[in-house]
Design goal:
With about 250 residues, the chain is an alpha+beta fold. It is about 30% helix and about 25% strand. It has six helices and six strands. The protein has a five-stranded mixed barrel. β5 (about 110-125) and β6 (about 130-135) form a beta hairpin. α2 runs parallel beside α3 (about 180-190). The radius of gyration is 19 Å and the shape is globular. The two termini are about 30 Å apart. Residues about 170-175 and about 235-245 have low confidence and may be disordered. This is LON peptidase substrate-binding domain-containing protein. InterPro entries: Lon_prtase_N, Lon_prtase_N_sf, PUA-like_sf. It holds the Pfam family LON_substr_bdg.
Length: about 250
């Protein structure tokens, strides 16, 4: 078992290998993380781990407010995640490699990272300026019939795109040819489909590529049928942003 200890960045979203993650970093705990990552030589990867939040708040309250005007704001690396942060997060996440970390005049950071490899969360350390975690790197097993399943998922995804484009009254062109490597297909479709965090998390932690593709095929067919039979999509589905507030 290969383990690694990395800074931990919890989000209300799921990161997949190969997908780009833009971040606007303004909380002090994550500013401290970025300052530490900047100490890494430019020719080495600046890695941190992203995990989806199961129970907690991505941005910790910074001042008293509704409903409790007397509440004391939480401070520290685990603010918003309870007494045991490890229980607040999903157990499978993704390593991110920060290609760009740009500090602004106000001390916040603009970060552009890419997901690289899945990891399993083993433990969380909240003793420093930011969360760190011990992680087990996960291999990507292709499983059985991944190639044939990938072809079926791509066909279903194109139909899903067409239906979604009609519902949104605009094109959902990917801007290029879709990949044909099964694991890449599985991650791209998982990231691009309009699914909630629990559904995306299930896809991330699938035991192998074939299992992920098989679940995606069912999800795409079901979502396409729903879109076909509904006059419009819920507004909340149309306003999702790819950029986290953090």
């Amino acid at each position: 078992m290969t383990t690694v200890r990395l800074p931990l960045f919890p989000l209300n979203s799921v990161l997949f290998p190969g997908l780009v993650l833009p971040l606007n970093v303004f909380e002090e705990r994550y500013r401290a993380m970025m300052r530490e990552l900047l100490k890494t030589p430019e020719d080495e990867p600046r890695r941190f781990a992203v995990v989806a939040i199961r129970d907690g708040h991505e941005v910790a309250p910074s001042a008293p407010g509704l409903p409790d005007q007397t509440a004391v704001p939480e401070r520290g690396p685990a603010a918003g995640f309870g007494d045991d942060p490890a229980q607040a997060f999903h157990k499978v996440g993704c390593i991110a490699d920060a290609a760009t970390i740009r500090e602004r005049a106000d001390g916040s950071f603009e970060v552009l990272a890419t997901g690289t490899r899945r990891v399993r969360l083993l433990s969380v350390d909240a003793s420093g300026a930011f969360l760190t975690a011990e992680l087990e790197e996960l291999e990507e097993d292709p499983g059985e019939e991944a190639g044939a399943l990938a072809e079926g998922v791509l066909r279903a995804f194109r139909q899903y795109q067409k239906r979604l484009a009609g519902a949104r009254e605009r094109s959902l062109s990917t801007g290029g040819e879709l990949p044909d490597e099964p694991s890449v297909v599985s991650y791209l479709v998982a990231a691009a489909a309009m699914l909630d965090v629990p559904a995306k998390q299930r896809l991330l932690q699938a035991p192998d590529t074939a299992s992920r593709l098989r679940e995606e095929l069912g999800l795409l067919r079901r979502e396409t049928a729903i879109i076909r039979n509904l006059p419009s999509l819920p507004a909340s589905e149309l306003t999702r942003s790819p950029t986290s507030l953090n």
